[in-house]
Structures are given as C-alpha cells and as structure tokens.
Amino acid sequence: MKQRKITLSENEIPEKWYNIVADMPNKPLPPLHPGTKEPIGPDALAPLFPMELIKQEVTPEKWVDIPDEVRHIYSMWRPTPLYRAYGLEKVLDTPAKIYYKYEGVSPSGSHKPNTAVPQAYYNKQEGIKRITTETGAGQWGSALAFACNHFDIECEVYMVRLSYDHKPYRKIMMNTWGAKVFPSPSNATEAGRKILAEDPNTTGSLGIAISEAIERAATNDDTKYALGSVLNHVKLHQTIIGQEAVLQMEKAGDMPDIVIAPFGGGSNFAGLAFPFLRMNLESGEHKIRCIASEPTSCPKLTRGVFRYDFGDTVGMTPLLPMYTLGHNFVPAPIHAGGLRYHGAGVIVSQLLRDKLIEAVAHDNVEVFEAGVTFARAEGIIPAPEATHGIATAIAEANKCKQEGVSRTILFNMCGHGNFDMKAYEDYFAGNIVRHELSTAEIEASLAKLDTPLIE
Amino acid sequence: MKQRKITLSENEIPEKWYNIVADMPNKPLPPLHPGTKEPIGPDALAPLFPMELIKQEVTPEKWVDIPDEVRHIYSMWRPTPLYRAYGLEKVLDTPAKIYYKYEGVSPSGSHKPNTAVPQAYYNKQEGIKRITTETGAGQWGSALAFACNHFDIECEVYMVRLSYDHKPYRKIMMNTWGAKVFPSPSNATEAGRKILAEDPNTTGSLGIAISEAIERAATNDDTKYALGSVLNHVKLHQTIIGQEAVLQMEKAGDMPDIVIAPFGGGSNFAGLAFPFLRMNLESGEHKIRCIASEPTSCPKLTRGVFRYDFGDTVGMTPLLPMYTLGHNFVPAPIHAGGLRYHGAGVIVSQLLRDKLIEAVAHDNVEVFEAGVTFARAEGIIPAPEATHGIATAIAEANKCKQEGVSRTILFNMCGHGNFDMKAYEDYFAGNIVRHELSTAEIEASLAKLDTPLIE
Q1: pLDDT (tens digit per residue) in A36-76
Q2: Does the domain spanning B77-109+233-447 belong to CATH 3.40.50.720?
Q3: Which of A183, A278, A342, B368 could pair covalently with A161 via S-S, beta carbons 3.0-4.6 A apart?
C-alpha cells in the first residue's frame, strides 16, 4: 500500500522556533513612531504585549526555545500530518509530486493556535488576567479563545458586527471555550461608543475592532492585546509548521522544489516557508522556490508598493516598512476573510524586496474551483483562505504537465472549511464573482498615503 | 513530556474486520419475513444490497478481509489517534485513567466513513451506478457522499425536510462531494408524492426518507440502497475502530477496565467495543465492562423490550429480534439526531440479553454539561451524539473518585461538533430541556406492537 500520510511522533515536535531574521542578508528596517516618525524601541510595545513576546519580536537569535508546557499543549494536535496528494495528482494527471501539510486538525481548525497558545502562555507567566483581540470571520478569535481557556485567562473578542450577526457559529465556538464575544463596535469601549453614537446601525470593520481591543489593553493594567498575524513573534511561532514539514519530507525521501502558502498578513506563509528558505539562505543557493499566494482583490505583494505604512486602518500603530495597498484600502468582501489585509508583515516584505521569495495572485472564482477540485480529490473541504494555496499548487502542477517535467510541490493546507459552507453554497449558486482591481483603483488608494517613503 | 496521543502508522491499519458472531455463545435469531413471519434468507436482501455485503451480513467467519483499496482510502484519516485525556482527568480530579479514541478526524467528521467507504467499494465492484440513502441531521449522508464521490458513483440522499431547511451546512457539504440531496418527502418517488399530496407542508421524518430511498433502489436495476448503522455488515466495518484501539492500548502499556460508546443503532458501540469483548469471549472471563450509552429520551436498551420488530417506521423491512421501544415510537427532537432510533441492532441486542454488555441512559442536559466540560478540558468540541459517551465516562471516573480506586476508562469520541454549534447555542441559552419518559408513555408505545414475541 502506497504511503499517504507522513506522520511524526510527539517527541519529534520541534523544541525551538526558527527566527529567519538571523539568516536574512538585509535585516528589516526599524518601525517608526506614528507621530515623530523616529525609530522606536521595544518599550513602545510594553502597554500591549508581555515582555517575553516583545523580546521575541526583536530578537536577533536564530533559535528560540519552545517552553515544555507549550509543546505539551501542541501535542493535542501536533505533529500535524503531511499528506502526499495522490488523489489530486491523479485528477490533474500531472507528473508533479504534490504534498500538503494539514493544519486543520487543530482544535479550532487552522494553524492559528500555533501562536495563540504561546501568546496565552507568556501572558499567563507575567500574571495577565485578560487578553483582548479582534476577529473578522472568527478563525483567530476562536484560536485565542481555546488558548486562553487552557490557561484560565479571560478572553475578550471584538468581532466585526457583520460577522457576529451573519456567522454565529464561530461566535458560539468561542463561547464554548469560555470567551466573551462582543459585536464591534460595542458599548464596552470609548472607541466603540463614539462610533455607535455616530451610526447606531454600522456593521463594523476590522479597523474598528482593533481599536476597541487595543483600547481595552492600553487602559487596563491586567489586560494585554494579542494579534494573530503580521508581527515577527507570530511568524516565529508558526515556524513549527515548516520545521515539522522539513522532517517529514526527509522521511518521505523527498524535498520540495516549490513551497506554497496562502498570504494574509504573512504568518501562514512564514510558518511553512521559512524553515525551507533557511536551506536556501544557509547554502547560498536558491534551490527551493517559495511562493506566497494572495487574492487578486487584495494584491499587496503583487501590485502594492514597499513603503512605511500603518498596521491598522485608523493609524494608531507604529509605522512598519511593508508592501501595502494603503492602510485605508478596503478589500472586496471575499469569503477568505483572513486574506483581507492591506499590508504584508515586515520580514516577508523585506524577503520579497530582496527577491528571495515570490508572490502570485488568484481570482476568487479560480480559488473556489480549486477548492472543490481538492475536496473531491482529497476528501477534505478547505477553508476559503486555504484554497489560494491550492490554486497555486494546481497552477504549478499544470505547468509541470505542459513542460513534461516532474517537480515536487508542497503547500500549506492551513484549515478546513467546516465553518465556511455558506461560501461553498454561494459558489455552487453562481454567486461568487471575480474581483479584478483596476490600476486606477490601486493608485487612488496609494495616493492617499502620506507615510514615509523608503529610498 | 507526558505522551498524550498514541498513534499508529498506516501499515498498522488492520487487514481484517472482526465478526463477533463467530465468538457469541448464543447466535442471533433469524430475521422474519414481514408478511409470512417465516425466517428469510439472504436472497431477500438482493434488491437492496450488493451480494458481497449480503454475504458479510450473514457470514459466520470470524475475520473478513479488508480490500487493499479500502485500506488505502482509510489511510486518508486512519489510523485515528487514541488520546490520554489528561485535561479531563485533571478537571475531574479522578484517580481514573481516561482514554478516548477520536474518530472526528475523518473527512465528514465522524466514524461513519468507516462503513460508507467499503459499502461504496462493493457496490462499485458489482457495477452499481447509483446509491440511495436517507439522512436526518446529515452525518451519514455526508459520509456516503464522500465515499460515492471517491468511486464516481452517483449518490442520492433523502434528507428529512426539517433538517434540509434548518441545517443547510451538511447539505452543502454533501453537494461539495457531488451528491444530490432531496428534501424528503420529495417528488422523486411514489412514496414522496403520495405524502406531499396529502400534506404539502409536512416536515418529513426518517421513516418517510427511508421509504423514498428504498423505493428508488428497489425499482432501479443500477441502483442500490445503503444504511449507516443497525445491520451486521455495518457493525463489522466499524470494528476497525476497536482493533486499532486494542493495538494502541497495548502500546500505551495499559488495557481498559471499562469501554464506553454512544448508542443509536449500534455501529458506533460495536465499532469500539467488539474487539475488546473478543478478549472476554475468547478467555471466558468478563474482564472488560462494555457500556452502551443512550439518551433517556430514546431508551430502548435500558427500558425497551426484546422482541421482533420492524427496522423502519412504516413496517417494510424484515422483522428483526431486537431491543425496541416499538417501531412507531417517536423520540423527542434532541440534537443527538443519530441516537433517535427506536431499536437496537440484532447482534448488540443478543449480547445485552446475554448480559455480556451493559447499557446506561443520560439526560439531554447532563450530556451537554459533559460536552462543554470535555471541550474546555480537551479542546475538541464534541458532536451531540458523542457527548453521551463522555457523560458515561465522567460518571465512571467520578465513581472511581468516590471509591478511591483507579480504573482505566476508554470511550469512543465518535465525532466533532463543528456542524452542531446551534445545539451548543441552545444549551448556553438554557433552551435544552430534560426528556424523561414516563413508564406509561413507553407502555403505550409497546402496546401498539403486534409483532412476534420471543420465548
């Protein structure tokens, strides 16, 4: 019988996270103060994050120890399986060998708990009683709810009202793990009350929800804030994915030519790709192509500019050197809510600028076609975010067929679609539409920026 | 680090299913013709099932080979993990050691694909083009849709209209795997049209859906019918669960004193328990207690009678010797739809009658309490059916604490609750109510029976 899953035992869960900054030829530029535009140090983050996470955010060390307790919680679902996609290869009739790392086996169904757990752990270590966060469709909020429940930390999630009203199941999942979920804007914060006073019927936005969560953390000593992507320490935690995958590919007696992952803020991509990129960086040879896969409706990597910009919509965060569409950019309401972010994390942005990684964009209809093909061939229904990586993998496998060459392709199947069946219903009903942005639209968004240019 | 998951490699997937009939001291009584009341042979089933499954239904052989192709499909999610429930043990503060076998990692999220896959396989082998079935909440229908898609067999699912309208996500899951889903009663069958003509607004029932699915199979040569529980061959296929669990308990250096599983028609329970019961039967010692866990609202094992009864509501199937509440019994509309069945499979009924297994019943509120305790302690939100096994495990662990003894408890965590969040919402809102049946209610249902008595 041909082996389909490459599994690892619990004692093979990596003992350290990998910090790619140590191996980067050009280090990321420093964040700037939003007011003074001067470089800021780690202290500026102290009101929002526990000190251990701030240290990880700026550490130059190549390896960071994973606490035993975190590894033991990881063992609830890790190591995750690496699959050889025999079904997909057959349907595509491709000479390519296709593998995927499956992160949907986690409690909340995606890769997000990989960072939610250590974030909750370090907060607990520093005596924090409450963690706040924002969530759109709910993937990040439910991962943090799960992690906080484990450490008996109160979890407050500000959920964009549109999602709160229309996608109640993620909210109930968070409640089941004991989290408090507020429709945002809420009456629990100054920011929320102000917006509600102006427009009581607003459906909210991720930008507003971030403002509410940050306000709660900034104004309460026992409360901190947590973010599910973009930041360096989040990417660091996610490298557990790629480190396992390296081991698993070695066990399969194979190594990818191409590594692919969906791209929202960058932690999904970083998680799988960085441990493979490490091989390129250490050897000085560009052997493995790493491709970030984004939606055409939010194409910061393929059509954005590299400059300083805010991480949030309101302009409260430090200025970060990133590929961006402009912090006021409002992406189309695609089902892949996790990819609807205007900018790219700092490390990934620098890597792209240095041409050490690649990026592609896929249309909304194309990714659902890919998702259904995958569900029928491999039996797992992917989350809308995950379909982007699948679409890139299919495109590369089709290239192999056209060129008559075999390459080994690995992608991050970052989550299941059990909470996204409405998206598939819309697809089957023909209600998923193409979202191509015109150059004028992108230029109009970028023209509004007055943040510092780079070079 | 304490080991949490006991995993097996793909080459440890069992090569044979275990047929407990070979080891039973008293063999099951024969099924009777619904009209003549005479024993019937396997041929009577030929219009509905492929011959290989009929052979398995009546085989006296102890072991049945699992085809390589079926094992390869199993490898998409099998072997499933066996967990040591450290989190639950801690919350309960019990000296008991608690383990659970987790079947929620399958594509459709429960143990159902274990039998859906071989059923589709044998139908394919015999050239069948279409399989029909009924489904309530959708667990069985989605498992069969997944399996049929794999073999390129058309799948027609008759879904009780109430569920079709109120639980659309399982329906979309089936569509994603290419199945046709009809709200039942439908216009696709004589039975459906007749009922619709009488009451166009009926919400349907499982009994009606079975009639529709059977009619389609009986009246089309290229079409067969599939059932997700109750029958012997279904139980046979599910023994893959318990066989893996025996291996895993051995690897853990432990062996259960008590084995527990939820009980609907019996395949969930049979799947985990039979390979452990085998040890009792072969040794002649009653070392391992096997407990079936049912809802108090549908208590055929704990409060029903052992006599011949129909498998369906309408009275079309052969008469089976079973514990039953009467085929006209209508269980309360609890969320654990998979446990709302009036009778128990033939083999399990005989085992209970011979006191080789035990049964307990839990109230609806108690099981949701258990489900939330489990979700918070172990990080996996269980399906409402699965919460019944959890409730029994918690009760036994609490007994250990009261008695100051340590026992090893194993239960079947047969599925996740990702498609059942509405049930948890109802629970948190206080809308889950107790369902105690009075003796008069049960007697009234049984009084309607005119089926043959036993002894």
Answers
A1: 999 998 898 999 999 999 999 999 999 999 999 999 999 99
A2: no
A3: A183
List the Cα angle B433/B437/B438 in 5-degree steps. Answer: 130
Residues 6+ apart with CB under 8 A from A101: A80, A81, A82, A83, A241, A244, A245, A248, A272, A410, A411, A412, A413
Residues in chain B: 455
Q: What is the ipTM of this complex?
A: 0.95
Domains B77-109+233-447 and B113-227 share a fold: yes
Other beta carbons within 10 Å of B51 = 14
Query: Does A321 score more than 80 pLDDT?
Result: yes
Whether the pLDDT of residue A337 is over 90: the answer is no
- Name beta bridge partners: B413: B102
- Residues B341-377 have pLDDT tens digits of 899 999 999 999 999 999 999 999 999 999 999 999 9
Tokens coding A224:
């901190």
Domain edges within chain A: 77-109+233-447, 113-227
Phi and psi based region of residue B102 (left: phi greater than 0; alpha: psi -120 to 50; beta: remaining)? beta
Fold that domain A113-227 belongs to in CATH: Rossmann fold (3.40.50)
Torsion of CA B363, B369, B375, B381, to 10 degrees: 40
Distance from CA of A392 to the nearest CA of B (A): 21
Instruction: Provide the shortest C-alpha distance from residue A379 to chain B (in Å).
Output: 6
The upper half-sphere exposure of residue B195, i.e. CA atoms within 13 Å in the direction of its Cβ, equals: 21
Cβ contact, residue pair B4, A76, below 8 Å: yes
Residues of A in contact with B1 (CB under 8 A): 10-11, 68, 71-72, 75
Q: Count CB-CB contacts under 10 A for residue B447.
A: 9
Query: Which residues make beta-bridge pairs with A84?
Result: A99
- The position carrying tokens 């809802």 is B295
Please state, in angstroms and rounded to a whole number, the distance separating the CA atoms of residues A36 and A21. Answer: 26
Helix (H, G, I), strand (E, B) or coil at B79: coil
Q: What is the C-alpha separation between A230 and A342, in angstroms, rounded?
A: 11
Count the neighbouring beta carbons within 10 Å of the beta carbon of residue B190.
12
Would you call A7 and B7 a contact, using CB atoms and an 8 Å cutoff? yes
Q: Is the CB of residue A207 less than 8 Å from the CB of residue A313?
A: yes
Lookup: tokens for B10:
């793909």
